[in-house]
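Pinned message: reference record for ferric-chelate reductase (NADPH)
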Amino acid sequence: MEGMDMSGQATPANINEPYANNLATIIASVICFLTLRYFFVHQTPRASSPYKRLENLVVNKFSYTPFSMSPPVGAFLLVCALTSAILPLLLLNVDLKLNSNRAGFLSLAIVPFLLSSTGKNSAVSFLTGISTTRMNFLHRMLGLALIVCATVHMAFMLQAWAKFPSFMRSQLQVTKVQYGLAGYGLLCVVILGSFLPIRKYCYELFLGTHLLGIAFIGVIAMHTPYAMRYFVAGLVCYALNLVAVWGVKTYMAQAYFDVLPEGCTKISIRLASPMKTHAIGQHINLCIPAISIFQWHPFTITSVQQQNAKYQNSIEVCVIARGNFTRALYNNIDASKGLPVFVSGPFGSTNIKSMDILTNSTSVVIANGGAGITFGIRLLRELSDTLVTFDDNCEEKDTLNHWKTKDIYFYWSVHRINELEWFRDELEHLNHLFESHARFPNLHIKLHVTSKDGAGDASARPNLEDSSTAHSSSDINERVDGQGFFDTKRNSQYLEKKMVEVTQGQRLDAKYILSLQTDISAYVCGPTGFNASFKNAVASLSIKKSTTVNLHCEDFSY
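Predicted structure (tokens):
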């Protein structure tokens, strides 16, 4: 039984270290490539334009979802890539029955990257620019790879010992083995606490089980002296990330609330210290101690960037009641009182710029599904604000035919008609604003209500219990100045309205929408199935050679 006694020095564990280092090198090389790509795209926007077009084409193709509610093709490719990196290193030049420590070493090599990708704003996310949602998927895949390798290590070891009961009993008395079994047990608890039902309905349990990861690190460090060289690297990255987030990107603030129909809470946040600029699609992580002192949740910033402002003093987010935290907020908040909150951010890509959109695309499609409106309304606000600012500061001859964009199509699909009240007033204001300016692109706003109930009243306002809760961003401006919304003093026409088209009992047809325009920049945000319909439309639609579709699917942060 040479090579299996974990209590002595007979186990040649060091012969497995090069394989673990090779795995760490492979993953680190991928991160370095993504970091260089992120730097290249953001620091040299003009030089990287051809690359971005090629990358966008590849991403759109790999975003195809073959089955309803299944992950996209790109997710399967990521799993395959991770498997192809681990499997050869696991099986090369080894008999796992005699040396299952190979799998254990590969588990250790994964730990630093698992720790580096932990949290709402991880170190890997900071380096690569990968969004929180996508990074969370990678984190879960790394966690799955870790538990699989650890299970292989334990299973082959125990299977070999089981053939010799007396030997197995003696090994189980060894302190090193006991630490190993305890570490594996803690890891299993962490994995079980990560299942979707627990994450969604009992976040405190999810958080508590993840804190056991600290105990796992300590126990495995006692199990094998080779562990700490891997653990230290991950812990340093995680510690630096915590220091950066709390020291640089976390703010104390005062929040004011407006409760709207169908589970929407608009939160106007006045920051105690100013925040640097934020971009379209970026989000903040918000903690409301009155609701939960442990939970931080991401919410898309809906207020626009303040013109000519170096720092932002206040922001707005919209919270849609979907989980325990958001439902508790909607049901229990007192809209007449402000509450102290903690804000961390902004996080996310800064690639989307309204000026670039208006100068590079003939048609702009903004498609929103349900709470995905939080991204779409911010984008439409930024486009409108850019147009108004340029129109005010330039002479008529300068604004004539200045923009390449001729049409902006804004779609919003909801399940219940009352959900339209979240932003219907503002959309009607914007509809009138665009129509009253001949030099603006044509704005086409089309709202879809998938429920067939009350089809005959689709174009009429629902009878709300408290109509005063439905308000536009201009109302918030009056209460929280400096919010970065439309300056109503600049254009009194913004207060006027034009009704928008509402279609009831019909879903958005992504393929039909994308086939109507040419040279399209499409920005999509909604539930998984909603985004997948547009990804599939781009991947499968036979579009004319003269037509290009630049599809950007935003992560869903409500």
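Pinned by admin. Summary line: The CA atoms of residues 286 and 430 lie 29 Å apart.
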